[in-house]
Amino acid sequence: MKKKIYTLCFMCSVRCPIAVVVEDDKIVSIEGNPHVPAMKGVCPKGAAAVGWLDDPQRVQAPMIRTGPRGSGQWKKVGWNEALDYTADRCKEIFAQYGAKSAVYCERVNLVTDLSKTFLKAIGSPNYFSHDTICKGSINTACRSLIGYTDGQITADWSNARQVILYGRNVFESVEVKAMNALLDAMGKGTKLTYIDPRVSITAAKAHNYMMIRPGTDLALNYALMHVIIKQHLYDVQYVDRWVEGLHRLSAFVDTYTPEWAEVETGIPAGEIIRLAKEASRAKPAVVFHYGYRGSHHPTEIYFRRSIMMLNALMGSIESPGGIVIKKGPKDAGLDAGIRKFSDQEFPPMEDARRFDGCGQDKFPIADAAHGVGAMFPSAVLNEDPYPIKVLFAFRFDPLYSNFDYQQSLKALQKLDLIVSCDINFGGTTSLADVILPESLFLERSDPLQMGAGLKPAVNRRIACIKPRYDTQPMWWILKQLAERLGVGEYFPYETIEDIWQYQLADMGIGIEAFEEKGFVSLSDKPIRWDRNDGIKFKTPSGKIEFTSSLLEDNGFPSFPPYEPLEVSDDRFRLMVGRCIAHTNVMTQNNPYLNELVPENRLWINAKRAAALGVNDGETVAVSSSAGEGRIRAFVTDMIHPEAVFMLHGFGHREPESRRSCGRGMADAEVQEAIMDNVGGSPALDHTLVSVSKL
Ligand SMILES: Nc1nc2c(c(=O)[nH]1)N[C@H]1C(S)=C(S)[C@@H](COP(=O)(O)OP(=O)(O)OC[C@H]3O[C@@H](n4cnc5c(=O)[nH]c(N)nc54)[C@H](O)[C@@H]3O)O[C@H]1N2
Ligand SMILES: Nc1nc2c(c(=O)[nH]1)N[C@H]1C(S)=C(S)[C@@H](COP(=O)(O)OP(=O)(O)OC[C@H]3O[C@@H](n4cnc5c(=O)[nH]c(N)nc54)[C@H](O)[C@@H]3O)O[C@H]1N2
Ligand code: SF4
Ligand SMILES: [Mo]
């Protein structure tokens, strides 16, 4: 008999609500959850999940490495042996170096609360998530202005009248709901401006496209602010009520005229003035989008701050059609939200110094809830602040998901123990000592998710089919490991139902409430605060802090002068990004998606290619001080002459993943270890590379 099951996709971290039709323990179809209006379908990656179910190249059972790291030599073992082995090795290492010698990294997911519980229980302060490498600086920028992280705000796409995107490639690097909401709004007249040195799919759909010089968006924004302030195009009442530091900003942008910005960005001064006026006419229903991936340049935090300041000048923060603050259970009138396992009382930590100095000496204002993951390889190699010996890589691949591949490889090789919990043989898994394979999201139930938003809801992932291989969900794996390490009492559950009950204990919601739609809404109507007097900014002043106490109390300026970007006649700024057919580094070996896009190419401007004698389709060498790689050229007019572009996620070397092994080039191969030292993101698009014909 066919049945429809409402659950959450996990082919990328967006976790869209989906409806899975199942018959005889087989997946018939995967669609958008019809109870969520903007979920009209799933993206190609979501649909391709089925390609993994019976894939013999998946990680199929617990494994212990038998040959050198990366040799592809493994023995399949039972769960008890794999877990005992992991715990015994940890005990040996912790006895000598302490639990702080263990670092735990993951892509934030529904088990994150239990990951944090695990670390607190074993007594290590060393956690980092993918978030910091993805968008740490956006998080810090947002907190410095409004006291909320980027994860705690969203764009009110449906009601926006003007949307301005800086390399936020919404129609390729998708979140399905947001993409559909924006498309619908555009159908009703919303205007889209897209700024990118490369003509992406989103550029092709925009009303107004600006081919900016790579890395100079901050200059554009300073000029926009100059025009908006000098010509009084801002929302005076809103700014008077909510903004601290307008006068300082006004003085600061005095010399950043549109004519000045034209030279730096290549965008005509008249276009900059026109954009400022158009946005202002639509205020407050304007979204200057703060971005999704915010890891481009060393000035990332100031660029992301400038975007949010533009929203503030438009009066758009917490206005319909602007940037809105997500609401939670308390805003919906409930006494409490989901109960967290990580809120239990844990013994004090022996040594609370973190490997990345996040929230401490090295990165005082980056978000300690996510850490500064880009620092991991150098911390291991330099044993700074102390030796790191163990890595738990759970749903995260630090080998390819960071800059400087060679540095990351050396760091991983130096570790005594790598424990990987994954579904695939990715870079780190292939180097691991022990693999604890997780069941695919279609095969497992997970802890509930609190979905904050204008209409907050609690969401559930539930198993649709039985696991095809000898795999387990992570909540089970973590409890097993914790028990073997003597801290099982912090995992007071046996089944997923026990977890759900624990989570819901204070909310007055029963688990049966999820049957109908897969989620439980906490509010029928969007919850909005009164923009005249009711916005609860979480900064010390309760206002939008252009003059930021977070920055200035920690010795960082609120308005550092703009530093012109180096021009290079013989090199290119390497830009990276995603395509619709793949998720970051994880889907290149998926049988369906591999067929759609089997390798990446290097976009290079036609004139520059001609000067180098490079023809379309030819293999070229790309090099920087970090390393060199080979990739086929895509010669095109659709990219700024100073930039080259490649898709992230290719260049896999794992012998176990036969479809993707040796296809294309990894961006990390040439990305230099450059950071935004204030905000915490790596600067993944800042490296200058040389391109040469072979
Ligand atoms: N060089 C470079 N580095 C980057 C980026 C870049 O563009 N270039 N992008 C950055 C960005 S934006 C991000 S978000 C991060 C992403 O970095 P990652 O999170 O490392 O990348 P993903 O490809 O999302 O997935 C990571 C791992 O999760 C595994 N996985 C997938 N599903 C499951 C599951 O259900 N269970 C388990 N246990 N494992 C699973 C995959 O097989 C893969 O090995 O990388 C960042 N790092
Ligand atoms: N299909 C698909 N969707 C995804 C993901 C995926 O892997 N695949 N991953 C999800 C994740 S983790 C993330 S973080 C988001 C990422 O979503 P986005 O942040 O929208 O984008 P990226 O794909 O990283 O693309 C970055 C774009 O920025 C442009 N760019 C590079 N340098 C500059 C510059 O100096 N100025 C400007 N204005 N533009 C520049 C590049 O040309 C590229 O088009 O996508 C999410 N959605
Ligand atoms: S964007 Fe696509 S892959 Fe990501 S969760 Fe949604 S449907 Fe799944
Ligand atoms: Mo990301």
Topology:
Blueprint: E1 2-8, E2 17-23, E3 26-32, H1 44-47, H2 50-53, E4 63-65, E5 74-76, H3 79-97, E6 102-106, H4 112-122, E7 127-129, H5 130-146, E8 153-155, E9 162-166, H6 176-187, E10 191-195, H7 201-205, E11 208-210, H8 217-230, H9 236-242, E12 243-244, H10 246-252, H11 258-265, H12 269-282, E13 286-288, H13 300-313, E14 323-325, H14 376-382, E15 390-394, H15 405-414, E16 417-421, H16 427-431, E17 434-435, E18 449-451, E19 457-459, H17 474-484, H18 496-504, E20 519-521, E21 544-545, H19 549-553, E22 572-577, H20 591-596, E23 601-605, H21 606-612, E24 619-624, E25 627-636, E26 643-647, E27 688-693
Parallel strand pairs: 6-7, 6-15, 9-10, 9-13, 10-11, 12-21, 15-16, 16-17, 22-26, 23-25
Antiparallel strand pairs: 1-2, 2-3, 4-5, 4-17, 8-14, 18-19, 19-20, 22-27, 23-26, 24-25, 24-27
Helix pairs in contact: 3-17, 4-17, 5-13, 8-11, 8-12, 8-13, 11-12, 14-15
